[in-house]
């Protein structure tokens, strides 16, 4: 019985991801048909990319700070 659990979870995960990707692509396609200002889309995309990079940098700094606080070895070989 326990051998089937990963199979069921993987199938469920693939099904959910496929469904969500379908609706995400459909929504973006429908939004593109409405038209709009391409500059606003580029501006919003740039803001999202900048926020993502700042969040990634902050997460990296917090991770290294925690590693240093715990006394883990940070030296490269």
Account of the 3D structure:
- With 77 residues, the chain is mostly helical.
- 82% of the residues lie in helices and 0% in strands.
- It has two helices and no strands.
- The longest helix has 32 residues, at 38-69.
- The termini are far apart.
- The model has no long low-confidence stretch (mean pLDDT 90).
Shape: flat
Query: Count the helices. How many?
Result: 2
Structure summary, number of beta strands: 0
Mean pLDDT: 90
- Provide the succession of SSEs: HH
Secondary structure: helix percent: over 70%
| Helical/strand content category | mainly alpha
The biggest sheet, with number of strands, parallel, antiparallel or mixed sense and barrel status, is: none
Radius of gyration based on Cα positions: 21 Å
Uncertain runs: none
Strand content: under 5%
End-to-end Cα distance: 44 Å
Write the layout of secondary structure elements.
Elements: H1 4-34, H2 38-69
Characterize this entry briefly.
Helix content is 82%, strand content 0%. The protein contains two helices and no strands.
Question: Any descriptors?
Answer:
77 residues, mainly alpha
């Amino acid at each position: 019985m326990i051998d089937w659990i990963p199979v069921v979870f993987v199938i469920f995960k693939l099904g959910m991801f496929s469904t969500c990707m379908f609706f995400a692509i459909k929504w973006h396609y429908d939004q593109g048909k409405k038209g709009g200002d391409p500059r606003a889309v580029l501006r919003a995309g740039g803001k999202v990319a900048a926020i993502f990079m700042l969040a990634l940098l902050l997460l990296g700094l917090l991770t290294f700070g925690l590693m240093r606080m715990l006394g883990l070895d940070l030296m490269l070989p």
